[in-house]
Amino acid sequence: MKALIFDLDGTLVDSVYAHTLAWQRVLAGFGLPSPACVIHRRIGLSGELLVKAVAREHHRSLRMADVKQLEKKHKALLHKLAPVSPPLPGAKEILAHLHKARIPHGIATSGKRSELKRSMDALALSPSAVVIDGDMVSEVKPEPEIFLLCQQQLQVEAAQCLVVGDAVWDVHAARRAGILSVGLLTGGTSAQELYNAGAMRVFRDAAELLSEIDELGVKGGGPGG
Q1: Is 7 known to be catalytic?
Q2: For the whole model, what pTM was predicted?
Q3: Which residue out of 9, 133, 166, 170 is catalytically annotated?
Q4: Of 7, 14, 166, 170, which one is the catalytic site residue?
Q5: What pLDDT digit, counting tens, does each position of 108-167 carry?
Q6: How far apart are CA 215 and CA 3, in angstroms?
Q7: Which residues form the domain of 49?
Q8: Is 9 a residue of the active site?
Q9: Is the C-alpha dihedral spanning 96, 97, 98, 101 positive or negative?
Q10: Count of structural domains, the chain
Q11: CATH no. for residue 66?
């Protein structure tokens, strides 16, 4: 493997449950009450796909204007509930290791660029870091476009990349992009679910991934990341 592509929420920063709670409150206020588990398993999708999926379970269809308004309310409530998105164990360390070893790497997230600043600051990313967000593609996970764009910007063949994610949507999108993937448990998805989706390995967190990164055949000396 010559390059790593990371998901963000639940993989590098501890934000999945804040997203879940924010969506739960916003949707309930719109007449779409849902158990947290229903929302949690869809974190990683775009806000539009998440809202439509929850509405479908209530046998309702929403106008796009309603979806956009719910996304706006979710963003505002998320900032109130979780003003900080702390790095998950090993996140900063693995990014620093990859940078030092000159192993190309990037972040590909369904989130909007305007929502990412806190996470980027928490990870202390360099200005040259490759970050692909939902505003840069026409379709987000589980579509593969976001990973393919990141792979192209890293200038490494898909077969030589490895996606690191915490949700089944990351694994599905990676498979459709022709990229192998590994899963992390830090987003709350079980190891069995990640394996069933197609992850080739599952690690407790980024710290454990870093401690065993040599087993994945990740080699340094590339053009940088």
Answers
A1: yes
A2: 0.93
A3: 9
A4: 7
A5: 999 888 778 888 888 988 777 899 999 999 999 999 999 999 999 999 999 999 999 999
A6: 14
A7: 16-81
A8: yes
A9: positive
A10: 2
A11: 1.10.150.240
